[in-house]
Design goal:
The chain is mainly α. It folds into two domains: about 1-310, no CATH class; about 320-525. Helices cover about 75% and strands about 0% of the residues. The chain has 24 helices and no strands. The chain has helices at about 1-25, 30-40, 45-60, 60-75, 80-90, 95-100, 105-120, 125-155, 160-170, 175-185, 190-200, 210-230, 235-260, 265-270, 280-300, 300-310, 315-320, 335-350, 375-400, 405-430, 440-460, 465-470, 475-490, 495-525. The relative contact order is 0.07.
């Protein structure tokens, strides 16, 4: 039972240390590092370097993929740059695999001892000390766990059932391959499974041929894990996740045939002059070669793979329509004048879409015209509005506004009012849809459409309509109150349920109508 206890304790410490290390490193992938990654990802070589850095920090393909998706969604990365960063992040995860190929138990014990001394010195009283202790303890637990797994593995060599299990797995290459794939789907990390393969090989439990197949299966499983976890995504984020899976598949598709052509991994290593190297180092090297081959191979046929991704995960119409076209985090935010101009253009493009929010209520006027589902349109439009706001804030951080500060505040004020206006318009559509056929509903909707059209002309088309816009957005509280009183009279409690429901929808819509008119005035004259 001691060998089992060593192995389980080591596995528990290793996994706990790995999770704690990932948690501690999250602070290193905060806004500053994200901005650094975005700036480094300007060209292919620098983007690959950013991917290596990201993989080394996260030590998880899945975590790296989600960081890339977040950077892509925030506009910090272009799609082409995100593909390169994501592909080379897998290479960065090989750091821990190489670390596992050396004797690390003593290093782990020293690291845990250092955290104890740091606690005695009360370093945990300051934030920096807490981060230091947490990081060193996570590293210590991880390395100690690896050492215990090796110690337990050496004892497991004497276990009959362990030997029989790996002999059975080695009888068929497919079994070892699938074992690596399935275990990776469970632990969500090919590096973790590869580390275990290296560790068990050092303990003499896992032969080299089985370790190689286990690592290849783990690589495929890692890509499949990202694809499965992101199954709820669509459009470009989904394409990036599928790309990660294709990168892993490409690496295995390149390396495995080479091993087969050479007549086995031992013969291939002999051809390369690696037979004198320690076996664990050779397994770790295989993991690295798989990741590099995947990144280079996928990059070589990137255009064709992107075309495939676009067919597998097409961009939704709403996302495409409201994708940013002017704002660019990597360059424009560093020059305030340029940033203000581009943010203003993006705002005006979003404002031109305001009248179309009412399309679901104006189908009689849009016969034959395809309209976007209201929920999808709302999410996409508000997402673009949020991106504009983040871009303005980023420009403020990157520059010194000086005498341009009032212009920045005016742009930000209009963006906030524009967001509220969009939300109110979508609330209006949702409230009025059940009673959209009524004369009052049609009248209010057409009035709003006219007001929004005049707003677009006033702000976006250089056709000043200030006087007309002020008249159209004047206070209508008395008129709307009379309408509400009439609705309550027309639909008493004795009226049929449908009439009462329509009246309730109209009552709610009249209140939102007043708010929309007021918000139009705020957007039109923001900053004045």
């Amino acid at each position: 039972m001691y060998e089992l206890g060593y192995a389980l304790a080591g596995l528990g410490l290793f996994l706990a240390g790995l999770l704690q290390l990932a948690h501690q490193l999250q602070s290193l992938t905060g806004p500053h590092v994200r901005a650094l990654l975005a700036r480094l990802a300007g060209g292919p070589v620098s983007a690959a370097g950013s991917g290596l850095l990201l993989g080394a920090l996260t030590q998880s393909t899945s975590a790296a993929a989600f960081v890339c998706i977040g950077l892509l969604n925030s506009g910090a990365l272009r799609f082409s740059g995100a593909l390169i960063v994501s592909a080379w992040a897998s290479v960065g995860t090989s750091l821990l695999v190489f670390l596992a190929s050396v004797d690390v138990l003593l290093l782990g014990l020293f690291a845990i001892g250092i955290t104890g001394v740091a606690q005695l010195l009360n370093l945990n009283r300051v934030a920096a000390g807490q981060r230091f202790i947490g990081l060193v303890f996570a590293i210590g637990a991880l390395l100690t766990g690896l050492g215990l797994i090796k110690s337990g593995g050496a004892l497991l060599q004497q276990s009959t059932w362990t030997v029989e299990f790996f002999v059975f797995a080695g009888e068929h290459a497919l079994i070892a391959f699938l074992l690596g794939l399935m275990v990776t789907l469970i632990v969500q990390s090919s590096a973790t499974v590869s580390i275990l393969a290296v560790t068990l090989n050092m303990a003499g439990v896992l032969p080299l041929s089985e370790a190689v197949l286990l690592v290849c299966g783990a690589s495929i499983g890692s890509g499949l894990s990202v694809v499965m976890v992101t199954s709820h995504l669509e459009g470009v984020p989904r394409q990036l996740a599928l790309w990660q899976g294709l990168v892993k598949l490409t690496g295995v598709a390149i390396v495995l045939p080479l091993i087969w052509i050479a007549g086995g991994v031992e013969k291939l290593e002999a051809l390369l002059g690696l037979e004198e190297w320690p076996v664990p180092t050779r397994v770790a090297l295989l993991y690295l070669v798989l990741q590099v081959a995947g990144a280079l191979g996928a990059g070589a046929v990137q255009t064709r793979l992107v075309a495939l991704l676009e067919r597998l995960a097409p961009e939704p119409a709403a996302s495409s329509r409201f994708a940013p076209r002017h704002i660019d985090y990597t360059d424009a935010a560093r020059d305030l004048e340029t940033a203000l101009e581009l943010a203003g253009r993006e705002q005006r493009r979003l404002m031109r879409e305001l009248p179309s929010v009412l399309d679901p209520l104006r189908l009689h006027e849009l016969e034959g015209v395809e309209t976007l589902p209201d929920a999808e349109r709302r999410a996409a439009a508000l997402g673009l509005n949020a991106r504009i706001g983040e871009f303005i804030e980023d420009a403020l951080r990157e520059t010194s506004p000086g005498d341009r500060l009032p212009a920045v505040f005016a742009l930000r004020s209009r963006n906030d009012a524009l967001r509220s206006l969009q939300e109110a318009l979508h609330d209006y559509v949702a409230a009025l849809t059940p009673a959209s056929a009524s004369v009052l509903a049609t009248s209010m909707t057409e009035s709003l459409h006219l007001i929004l059209s005049v707003l677009v002309e006033h702000v976006c088309d250089d056709q000043p309509e200030e006087e007309l816009l002020r008249d159209l957005t004047a206070d209508r509280s008395a008129l709307m109150e009379n309408i509400r009183s009439g609705l309550m009279t027309m639909a008493p409690e004795s009226a049929p349920a449908k009439e009462q429901g329509d009246a309730q929808s109209l009552l709610l819509a009249t209140g939102i109508f007043e708010r929309v008119v007021w918000l139009v005035r705020q957007v039109a004259f923001a900053g004045r």
